[in-house]
Amino acid sequence: MSKCKFHTCFLISAILLASCSNKENPVSGRVGSSIDYLNKPTDTTKVIITNPAIPGFNPDPCIIRVENDYYIATSSFEWFPGIPLYHSKDLANWEPIGHILTRESQADLRGIGSSSGIYAPSLHHHKGKYYALYTIVSGDFFPHLATPNYIVWADSITGPWSEPVYINSTGFDPSLFFDEDGTCYYLNMLLDFNSEHVTGGISMQTFDLSTMSVTSAPEIIFPGTMFGTEGPRIYKREGYYYLFTAEGGTDWNHQVTVCRSTSIWGPYEVDPDNPLITSRDHPDHPLQRAGHASMVQSPEGKWYMAYLASRPVMPQRMSVLGRESCIQKIDWSGEWPILEGGGDLPHLFTEGVGEKGPVVARPLQEDQFESEQLQPIYQTLRQPFDPSWMSLTMRSGYLALKGRKPFTSRDDQSLVARRITSLHGRVETALDYEPLHYRNLAGLIIMYDIRDFIYLHVSYDHAVGKYLSILHHSSQGISEPCERVPIPRDSTIFLGLEIDNDTLQFSYSRDGVGWTPIGDPFDFCQLSDENNRYGFTGSMVGICSQDMVDESLWAYFDYFKYVPE
């Protein structure tokens, strides 16, 4: 995965964007395209994939097929449970089916910084078993980071997944390749802080599945073609080993580079029409930052590529939704894979697989908290859900959160959130809460991370009593940019948020019918990757509670609704 964590990445991006034409990529022979990548196909009998196929903060997709089922795993960083899993039958309709890392013993994220944690997992299926590899990145100064790599396995995609086995710490983006002769190979990028490009190329070693350990010294099989050679995946076809990598940094210069060799150890020849896909020369294209690919072949022999891209707010070019998962149909009838239809730009629409059938139900939009378990769309920060601070049974039909540490803490936060998947939408919740102290807070939060968030909350002031207000936290500090609205005790307050492209407007209601705006509109662009040069996640919206007195006061949420438009 491309982890460009310093200003050089943005400088390189700006230089390349300034020097490249909007009509032709000087490093690519794939200039034209025989199809319109923006228009939806008119054939209503076909399964059509609309990109992003998995919207919202879902970067670094790794796709596999097991019989007629497709699975994608994505990065999760500091959010827990770790490594979201999605399932599809047709590559167009995806549903969340849970997470791979569900126990703290599999991923200890306490104290992990923002946009650290679980980087770029790889997902594999071999001889009836599922394998997942991942890195837990920590450290505040790039490129001097800790990058321990782990492997877990399971008999079923839904688990239970094993305890992790440590492999090495030389870089992130680990993956496996199973060769036809039974040999297993382990790959990862090298994080080389002595290298001009910071990434020292792709390293490979033989791997023993019986001991879950490497069995040979690392060798550099591909040094890369430019800055940020990462995300290695190997596929074998017609006597060649094809190595796919992400290059250019996960920002505006991102691309997929393909090379091949008749020997798995190389040397690898770069596709003369490199890159396979990129958006960097077309700054107005709706899918930007395209890169980091994995491949899958359908039972009928059709090839597809899963990759990441972002849909920035325009014209500001701010990725408030983070990096999302897209799918592109691939033409591999020749020696090198190409995008179906030609060109190197991502398509908004592409043909899926199988017969057109019922559309999978959209992710839950209104949760009445009637189940005893949280839906898989939710995550929390750095630690598992635990009945000591979260309950769906304490009060029937409510999610109860016991207040714990402050909203800027790297552990012990009582917060439940989900991804924002559209630049337009509506969020609502209803809160029953009786604060006793100004250090008691609960409410509705939209956030990028613990440094950048906007929090509509209920608290207490000796002069005002119980009140509603907004806390705004950014790199400039924390502020309360609106008046405190008094609220009667022993009453439920409804909290709302309207998302409209680059604008966020909070509101409240006494009865859930008539709504009153509170505060001025906020700039959504604050909650973006570009506003945070260390950011790799995406905007989340959720509910939370803090008790900075004695961590004992509970807040009760009657429902949580998010309706993207």
Structural features, described:
The chain is mostly beta strands and 565 residues long. It folds into two domains: 7-351, Glycosyl hydrolase domain, family 43 (Tachylectin-2, Chain A), CATH 2.115.10.20; 366-564, Jelly Rolls (Sandwich). The strands form nine sheets. Strands 27, 29, 30, 32, 38, 39, 40, 41 and 43 form a nine-stranded antiparallel sheet that branches. Strands 31, 33, 34, 35, 36, 37 and 42 form a seven-stranded antiparallel sheet that branches. Strands 7, 8, 9, 10 and 11 form a five-stranded antiparallel sheet that branches. The protein is globular, with a radius of gyration of 24 Å. The model is unreliable at 1-29 (pLDDT under 50).
Question: Can you summarize this structure?
Answer:
With 565 residues, the chain is mostly beta strands. The protein contains 1 helix and 43 strands. The strands form 9 sheets. Strands 27, 29, 30, 32, 38, 39, 40, 41 and 43 form a 9-stranded antiparallel β-sheet that branches.
- Total DSSP helices: 1
Detail the poorly predicted runs: 1-29
Task: Write out the CATH superfamily name of the largest domain.
Answer: Glycosyl hydrolase domain, family 43
Q: For the report, how would you describe the main beta sheet?
A: 9 strands, antiparallel
Total strand segments: 43
* Structural class category: mainly beta
| Radius of gyration over C-alpha positions, nearest whole angstrom | 24 Å
Gap between N and C termini: 30 Å
Domains, number: 2
CATH class of the largest domain: Mainly Beta
CATH architectural designation of the largest domain = 5 Propeller
Q: What shape does the CA trace take?
A: globular
- Strand proportion, as a percent range, falls in 35-45%
Q: Into which percent range does the helicity of residues fall?
A: under 10%
